[in-house]
Design a protein that fits this description.
Layout: H1 4-11, E1 29-32, E2 35-38, H2 61-83, E3 89-100, H3 108-123, E4 130-136, E5 145-153
Parallel strand pairs: 3-4
Antiparallel strand pairs: 1-2, 2-5, 3-5
Helix pairs in contact: 2-3
Length: about 160
């Protein structure tokens, strides 16, 4: 099933990927009541990380921003897997992003703008959200960035 949200993605030259298989004992997304919580989504493309390493060292901030955009797209696929249709998203409530950072890198908010800007492009005013951008030492698979998304759904 696809609707207006997926049409906006297509207009941006994007399509929802397959939901990434979990790396451990968890689900990619879980619905409780009107909310869908995604697990942390890595910037996997066809099951592979396009880049690895620390932002501010092996990965530039601009590259990491694009990876955060990919994480958000993967999160949307996870949301759809439990919501059935992205047109049911009433609003994006919160985004939490983790950036594997070199010791002196302080641009985590700019990196996470990749995810936030994509959600704004796709959902308009419904994509405006609260956010945390956290620098960490390392992420699974040596990914540079990981993003979680919390959305509220409309009534069934």
């Amino acid at each position: 099933m696809s609707g207006a949200v997926e049409a906006r993605l297509a207009a941006l030259g994007l399509a929802l990927p397959q939901v990434a298989a979990p790396l451990a004992a968890y689900q990619p997304a879980v619905r409780t009541g009107a909310y869908v919580y995604t697990a942390g989504q890595l910037p996997l493309v066809d099951g592979t990380l396009p880049l690895t390493g620390k932002v501010g060292a092996e990965v530039t901030a601009e590259e990491a921003k694009e990876l955060a955009r990919t994480c958000a797209l993967n999160a949307l696929a996870a949301v759809k897997s439990v919501a059935g249709d992205l047109d049911r998203v009433a609003r994006v409530v919160k985004v939490v992003g983790f950036v594997a950072s070199a010791a002196d890198f302080t641009g985590q908010p700019g990196v996470l703008n990749g995810a936030s800007e994509l959600l704004g492009e796709v959902f308009g005013d419904k994509g405006v959200h609260a956010r945390s951008a956290v620098g960490v030492a390392v992420l699974p698979l040596d990914a540079p960035v990981e993003v979680e998304v919390l959305v509220e759904l409309t009534d069934d």
